Amino acid sequence: MIFQVEMDVRIPHDLPAETANALKAAERERAQELQRAGIWRHLWRHAGRYANTSVFDVESPQALHDILSGLPLFPFMDVKVTALCRHPSSVRDDDR
Amino acid sequence: MIFQVEMDVRIPHDLPAETANALKAAERERAQELQRAGIWRHLWRHAGRYANTSVFDVESPQALHDILSGLPLFPFMDVKVTALCRHPSSVRDDDR
Amino acid sequence: MIFQVEMDVRIPHDLPAETANALKAAERERAQELQRAGIWRHLWRHAGRYANTSVFDVESPQALHDILSGLPLFPFMDVKVTALCRHPSSVRDDDR
Amino acid sequence: MIFQVEMDVRIPHDLPAETANALKAAERERAQELQRAGIWRHLWRHAGRYANTSVFDVESPQALHDILSGLPLFPFMDVKVTALCRHPSSVRDDDR
Amino acid sequence: MIFQVEMDVRIPHDLPAETANALKAAERERAQELQRAGIWRHLWRHAGRYANTSVFDVESPQALHDILSGLPLFPFMDVKVTALCRHPSSVRDDDR
Amino acid sequence: MIFQVEMDVRIPHDLPAETANALKAAERERAQELQRAGIWRHLWRHAGRYANTSVFDVESPQALHDILSGLPLFPFMDVKVTALCRHPSSVRDDDR
Amino acid sequence: MIFQVEMDVRIPHDLPAETANALKAAERERAQELQRAGIWRHLWRHAGRYANTSVFDVESPQALHDILSGLPLFPFMDVKVTALCRHPSSVRDDDR
Amino acid sequence: MIFQVEMDVRIPHDLPAETANALKAAERERAQELQRAGIWRHLWRHAGRYANTSVFDVESPQALHDILSGLPLFPFMDVKVTALCRHPSSVRDDDR
Amino acid sequence: MIFQVEMDVRIPHDLPAETANALKAAERERAQELQRAGIWRHLWRHAGRYANTSVFDVESPQALHDILSGLPLFPFMDVKVTALCRHPSSVRDDDR
Amino acid sequence: MIFQVEMDVRIPHDLPAETANALKAAERERAQELQRAGIWRHLWRHAGRYANTSVFDVESPQALHDILSGLPLFPFMDVKVTALCRHPSSVRDDDR
């Protein structure tokens, strides 16, 4: 099943650069791992903002939570989750 | 280039049913036409609401506007447009 | 899996009383049917408002959407859906 | 009587980890104690966010306040309280 | 126990005057009945708006709901309910 | 004349405990003084939040401002002031 | 004492023109009467909107309410009232 | 001097088509007249919405109001006005 | 021409008192200077909040910006600017 | 294609002045460079606020993102992006 997740990242300016960069690198690695696993299906950047729209394909809300709450940058995110489902006018079968 | 478009549809209760159904049928037909053309890339229903998240792949904002403002249900929609671009952590090449 | 659903009902004052009462009766019947089926797990009224908090136990967001969008009063509802999952501090096993 | 309580937890990034972990452990212990006492009836996590929806069964608003304001993480919470009551369409007797 | 209730009244301009006046008269009568019964403890008008702040002393949220949802003008109200309790700095004993 | 005042208190976590406690003690003392003087007519706690609804009986907005801005916790408050007046349906004479 | 009052006027498009014009004329007359009486001290139009900022000099919130609720266009207004008082840096004595 | 004006147009569905089309034609004519006069300096459509961002070069807020409130579609607009001025980093002299 | 300016002042609690007091003194001096010059026409305190409503009479938005951005407390203000103009029902000539 | 970008700048008071000034100087230089290149077409200051409205003429949302996210003050900005296109009533050809 699929969930739209919008993540607004706000890293406090007084977080040591070293810490911030390490978090970003770990975030990137984890995001790519999940994409290759077909879980993190889409990851788009909002033009002009440190925010993204993602679409996750997971077993359950619990699985979604475990993934998101485990992201390195999770403590610095405002997250909005929208449960999605197939639109009756969709012509695609793989767009669960 | 790609745009995230969220459409909240509110059809007034006093719109004659016949008119509403004709609009919905025309909307469905147009949406499927645009999907088959690869323009309306994704169309997901928000679970529990008469709303959707769509992703459009268009030449320009002008093209996007012509499509959206031409939709039969456009007069009854609250529309939110977010310009998207490739996320630096995305592993996909086709997710422009 | 479980979803919190908050429904704010606003029935237009110019909707014929007969129509409104028929919708309410059908809504009530459907709600009780779904509760007995264990799908509509909780249904609480917000004290002082024509609104409720419900908890649904469904197979997927799609199932949730089919149920909610099929409710007789759906056209007159503002609906807010929150995907829930087990809280790590919960002592209950049946509160999926 | 029952109250819906939504808790959004925001722990400042510059709170020493030790302090934060101690608070979380105490919070967990207190939450489980209240659940076993039948006061904290439901505790669900919002998928993807450090937030929960809870349902409390208490004697009065005063009792609710004493419980919530005594929670270890209370100083770091945005709390929204909604007084609930039995829905006329509810089929359950124990869902006070 | 006591609840703060803020009522914003919006009577549609196309509601026949006769109906509106009858509703207002019935509302007034019911409000005064409840005040004399000590249930509707305080009723203040927001200066400059068709809105009020009230304080109700009731047995439970259910009692509050039955009262508010039974008010003649209820269908035309936006209602906000806040559960109150004794403030630790209050010097009054009767201000439950 | 009377004013409804809602005070949301947010004490920064990095304010030394000693300072915070001294402020709270002074706030309590001042609040009780004003209540005994009949100025701070009502003081109710919002159940579950570090916030209150108060009703002040003062000579003028200026008097209200001098009182509120002089409260020890004023710098840590979000304050919302609503001018109240007698409701035409009120049966009380002393509820100015 | 003085109050800032912001009035947003929204006249429904299906209100007969004749009725609307009569209301506007009566509103104008009443506004000028109150200005000449020194009660409606300031009346400024928000550039580009059917809205105004006014400053009233009245005896009490009750007086303010009687004036505003008696305005012909009151039923079509969203009103925001802010109690004002003398600013400590003001050099004016007559700007109560 | 220049003002940014954002206009959100919402034409009620029950406004006769003939009336709506006449208003739109008159609006177009007036807009082009003002553009040629150098007053309506910029007029951009928000992609996907019946809304625009405009920049007006006028003598005063009063002039701006007279223009906007005289637009045929003004009664169906939500208008947001932002006073602009030269940015210290602007390299343009004519961007009043 | 005139502008309504609402200033919400939030001075961080960890700003050294000495700095804060110096800023406030400078702000007061500058405000009085501008009032005596007839530029800062009105300055009212919002009762109960560290906020004010002001009315400025300036040559242009640029002049307004230079004044406001030069205020000592500007960095700690949330500012809302509304362009005003003469109301057709105003009886005053000097209220530009 | 063109995008409206509104930037609200909030520089934390505890950011060393030296750092802040260096960022502002770099921001200014970069902004002027982009303006001279015809990319940053318009840059207006919101009168009274540390915010601007800009119009960018870029190849794609990706290009817009690279520019904005590369701005020295980007970490201290709240950014709102609106995709624009030619208004059917525009008389200008170069206002793409």
From TrEMBL, chains A, B, C, D, E, F, G, H, I, J:
Keyword annotations of the record: Aromatic hydrocarbons catabolism, Isomerase
Catalytic activity entry: (S)-muconolactone = (4,5-dihydro-5-oxofuran-2-yl)-acetate
SUPFAM superfamilies named among the record's database cross-references: Dimeric alpha+beta barrel
Xref: InterPro entries: Dimeric_a/b-barrel, MLI_dom, Muconolactone_d_Isoase
Pathway(s) this gene product operates in, as recorded in its UniProt entry: Aromatic compound metabolism; beta-ketoadipate pathway; 5-oxo-4,5-dihydro-2-furylacetate from catechol: step 3/3
Domain Muconolactone isomerase: start-end pairs: 1-89
Molecular function as annotated in GO: muconolactone delta-isomerase activity
Gene3D superfamilies from the UniProt entry: Dimeric alpha+beta barrel (3.30.70.1060)
Assembly information from the UniProt record: Homodecamer.
Family: Belongs to the muconolactone Delta-isomerase family.
Alphabetical list of NCBIfam families matching this protein: muco_delta
Protein name as annotated: Muconolactone Delta-isomerase
Protein's organism: Bosea rubneri
Highest classification ranks of the organism: Bacteria, Pseudomonadati, Pseudomonadota, Alphaproteobacteria, Hyphomicrobiales
